[in-house]
Amino acid sequence: MNRYTYSCPLRWADADANGHINNALFLRYMEEARTRMFQEVLATDEEGRRQNAFVVARSVVDYRAPLDYREEPVDVHVWVTKGAAATFELAYEIRDADRLYVEATTSIVAYNLNTGRPRRLSEAERDFMARYTQPIS
User: Fold this and answer.
1) Is residue 136 a part of any domain in this protein?
2) Domain that holds residue 115
3) Would 137 be classed as within a structural domain?
4) Domain count, the chain
5) Which class for 79: exposed (0-12), middle (13-18), buried (19 or more C-beta within 10 A)?
6) Percent of the chain with pLDDT over 70
7) Is residue 50 part of a domain?
8) Is residue 19 in some structural domain?
9) Confidence band for 135, pLDDT divided at 50, 70 and 90
10) CATH of residue 28
């Protein structure tokens, strides 16, 4: 299994009054991880980024344990579970060596911001995702 792993720093402002990381912020951690994961296939120019964008169509998050604020980062693991012509699904685990905090999925649509419509995934994008594809068991 080939997963992308992002070591995500926790910010003091991410904690709620009880010292736990606010649940809504796990979506931001997932966004940071997938953005870094896809850096090598994202266009480098503005027009290319507009024509070859990705948008989140759906997120499902299962909170498994509270994450207390700390100085050490948490690992966000990302992998592809399925794909089609214009869509794919990413799975996530947010964890450290001892504990699983979140399991999640996002449905992603390849999108052209100029036309406001979905687009087909490019061959390079499909090849990139194939490196991280693992069906959900």
Assistant:
1) no
2) 4-130
3) no
4) 1
5) buried
6) 98
7) yes
8) yes
9) confident
10) 3.10.129.10
Phi, psi of 120 (to 5 degrees): -80, 145
Is the CB of residue 90 less than 8 Å from the CB of residue 105?
yes
Supply the pLDDT for residue 40: 85
pLDDT tens for each residue of 125-134: 999 999 999 8
Residue 27 near residue 99, CB atoms below 8 Å: no
Measuring CA to CA, which residue among 79, 74, 108 is closest to residue 92?
79
* 3-state SS class at 36: helix
Q: What tokens appear for 101 in the block?
A: 């905090």
At residue 121, the pLDDT reads 97
The 3-state secondary structure of 61-129 reads EEECCCCECCCCCEEEEEEEEEECCCEEEEEEEEECCCCEEEEEEEEEEEEECCCCEECCCCHHHHHHH
